Amino acid sequence: MYVVATFTCARPLCLESYRTTVSATRYAPVALPPVSPLSSSTTGTLSRLVFATASVGYAIVGTGRSSTLYATFDGARTWHRRVVSVPGVIESVAATTTRLYLEVANCAVTVPYCQDFRLASSPLSADRWTSRRIPVSRTSAGGSFFGPVAARGTDVWVTETGSRAFVVHSRNSGRDFTLTASPQLLSVAGCALTVASATTVWAQCSTGMLEGFWFTSDTAHSWTYVATPKPVSGTGGGFFDPVSGNLAFLARGGPANELERVSNHARTVTSVGRLACPDVLSMVFVDASHGLAACEDFTYSYLEVTSDGGATWRHVAITL
């Protein structure tokens, strides 16, 4: 696990980064790329941090139409700026054990939405770029929304939402694409996908104030709705974490903050425990039993860890 935390100091923004195990009992300080303060973000201009392996990772630093890619190859001990030769604004990033993918778009100040979305791809060295235009359905109107890129192995996925919803899928690392109509995945900003295998994918779709969750096991040809006992608010402090092709956890947020286990190919939703915080900043399960959550109670934040599938959680402190 990699954890980014704030601490008190005389500067406007003080961030530290640590590497730890899933039990979160021992911490090793590591570095962060250059990050500046930003009033709307607790992590300043650090907008995204993703790791391809335990040692190779990437950070997107910047805001809006100006962002920079940094890479580490030694477990976040050092970071190196990387030039992305594909023009455009970096909208999202995904990494597999062999390739790095960036979703880039033309976001002109004279147009209220981004256009001409492309998938940029490089080896993990992040210095040899190729790109392909992400196809748009002929039925889509101008101003379609694209969800963040997701990848696993040689499969790459993106959702497109306009007058209709589609899934864009590549089986060969972004060289060729197919479009599959997925009317269930209508969203106000494109759905976030988590790829579990070449055929199984989870989708989290914002429909305004509420969140919808879907699952496919046949490469997006059909989708199963995750029927939660109560509606899930997109601003309620919850967090959705798919673990495998047949398991996901959903923290609902709010004062009760029930943790629900989604299994049986998304057909079974079971309450398994509670998190002692109303707002979950992040939650990661590495298997059916072990998980770590960054919690916030609007005054301070802290880490919670579970080793029994979310039935019980214990508070852990960052200590060196």
Extract low-pLDDT stretches. Answer: none
Largest sheet: 5 strands, antiparallel
Separation, N- and C-terminal Cα atoms: 15 Å
H/E element sequence: EEEEEEEEEEEEEEEEEEEEEEEEEEEEE
CATH class of the domain at 226-320: Mainly Beta
* Amount of beta strand: over 45%
The amount of helix comes to: under 10%
Structure classification? mainly beta
CATH architecture of the domain at 226-320: Beta Barrel
Whole-number average pLDDT?
94
Give the total of beta strands: 29
Provide structural commentary.
This protein is mainly beta and 320 residues long. It has a domain at 226-320: Beta Barrel (Thrombin, subunit H), CATH 2.40.10. The protein is 0% helix and 48% strand. The protein is built from no helices and 29 strands. The strands form 7 sheets. Strands 12, 13, 14, 15 and 16 form a 5-stranded antiparallel sheet that branches. Strands 17, 18, 19, 20 and 21 form a 5-stranded antiparallel sheet that branches. Strands 4-5-6-7 form a 4-stranded antiparallel sheet, with no helix packed on it. A hairpin with a 7-residue loop joins strand 28 (301-306) and strand 29 (314-316).
